[in-house]
Write a structure and sequence with these properties.
Layout: H1 2-21, E1 32-33, E2 39-40, H2 54-65, E3 70-75, E4 81-82, H3 100-112, E5 115-119, E6 125-126, H4 129-142, E7 160-166, H5 174-182, E8 189-196, H6 204-211, E9 216-217, E10 222-225, H7 233-242, H8 248-253, E11 264-269, E12 272-278, H9 282-289, E13 293-300, E14 304-307, E15 327-331, E16 336-340, E17 350-358, E18 368-374
Parallel strand pairs: 3-5, 3-7, 4-6, 7-8, 8-9, 8-10
Antiparallel strand pairs: 1-2, 11-12, 11-18, 12-17, 13-14, 13-18, 14-16, 15-16, 15-17
Helix pairs in contact: 3-7
């Protein structure tokens, strides 16, 4: 009887240990395969020993500026562990940067144009899997709030927060709760993204909602299995666009670029000059790239002058020439540039390059050798 009781006790202990391995999420999410092939769940990779990584330092500074209106904050084992010199990149990929949540956060930042902020603890986690697992479980049991390295100083500059994390022990890393308690997200739109193992989102959403009661927490959440995280760029960026961010939204956050100056060319012969402004077609750009040119002008029909550039022009996307006198065009079948000085009939192979700006009355007098060059 005593032997039977001991046997049942041993089986119960083994089942309990197996349950723990699926209860924690790697940096990618809730389940990182350990050396035995079982599914466990902890954070991601590690940064340089003992200090704040360069990426995290720069992202912290960017987030404190609060210039973009969108904050992408995330917790990753990659930014929160001290690398052991003996760590094997093949055997322990989840301990090496970039971690899964770190990668997801980078893609969200890329799509939104927001500021990136890495949530980092003052006391880094060990890179040994078992030791990290043990500490994560101890913090959960103690309801600990690990001290963080940095804070978002200008949180008021953000109306929207994307918050990324791995599933640890069917919840969140306790450092995430430190972050939420130190940063009041009341009134801000918050979107969650999570990397996990077999535990999925588990209780993480409820825990975050309780820790940030004033936040406007979206129920549209992105999550993926940790092993799928490295190939999830397209999926998570599509999610961002589905939420109404990215694309035009991200572009609007970038500094406005000065409008490109119009490309103009001048045609000179003797003391005469005709000025043309080119359109933005690839054909016009191809002609512009060949300048300056010295060419012989030929008469053709009663309404145009022509010359042959050294290289053919790419007419992909070029508009058809449908104007009248003053049009600069390209006839693709013959490869000649045409100066129209009178009306003409449209042709499906005749493409517009630009229009005359000044000296249009002189185009009919073009003859002999002319110099064509860009107007700087």
């Amino acid at each position: 009887m005593k032997r039977l009781f001991a046997l049942l006790t041993a089986i119960a202990m083994l089942l309990s240990a197996a349950g723990c391995q699926t209860a924690v999420g790697s940096d990618a999410g809730v389940s990182a395969a350990d050396s035995s092939g079982s599914s466990s769940s902890l954070p991601e990779a590690a940064s340089a020993a003992g200090g704040e990584s360069a990426a995290a330092s720069s992202s912290s500074a960017a987030a404190q500026e609060g210039s973009g209106g969108i904050l992408v904050a995330y917790f990753s084992w990659a930014d929160n562990a001290v690398l052991d010199e003996e760590v094997d990149a093949v055997a322990s990929p989840s301990v090496l940067s970039p971690g899964n949540v770190e990668e997801l956060a980078g893609w969200v930042q890329e799509e939104t144009g927001g500021d990136l902020f890495s949530i980092q603890v003052a006391d880094p986690y060990p890179s040994d899997w078992d030791a990290c697992l043990e500490r994560a479980n101890a913090e959960r049991g103690e309801d600990a709030r690990p001290e963080l390295v940095a804070a978002v100083e200008n949180l008021d500059g953000y109306d929207t927060v994307f918050l990324g994390y791995p599933n640890w022990w069917y919840g969140v890393p306790m450092a995430l709760l430190t972050f939420l308690e130190q940063n009041d997200l009341s009134g801000k739109e918050v979107y969650l993204f999570c990397s996990h193992g077999t535990g999925g989102l588990a209780q993480s959403v409820e825990i975050i909602a309780e820790a940030a009661p004033g936040a406007i927490l979206s129920d549209n959440i992105f999550d993926c299995y940790e092993e799928e995280a490295p190939s999830s760029q397209e999926a998570i960026q599509a999610w961002v666009r589905e939420l109404g961010f990215g694309g035009e939204t991200a572009a609007a956050q970038e500094p406005a670029q000065p409008a490109q100056a119009a490309r103009q060319i001048q045609v000179q012969w003797g003391e005469e000059t005709v000025l043309y402004e080119l359109n933005d077609s690839a054909a016009a750009a191809a002609l512009y790239s060949q300048l300056p040119l010295t060419v012989e002008i030929e008469d053709y029909s009663t309404n145009e002058k022509i010359f042959y550039p050294p290289q053919q022009l790419d007419t992909t996307g070029a508009p058809l020439a449908e104007g009248g006198a003053g049009t600069l065009a390209y006839y693709a079948p013959w490869g000649d540039v045409v100066f129209f000085y009178d009306s003409y009939s449209a042709n499906p192979s005749l493409y517009e390059l630009g229009q005359v700006v000044s000296g249009g009355e002189l185009v009919g007098e073009l003859s002999g050798t002319v110099v064509i060059q860009p107007v700087e």
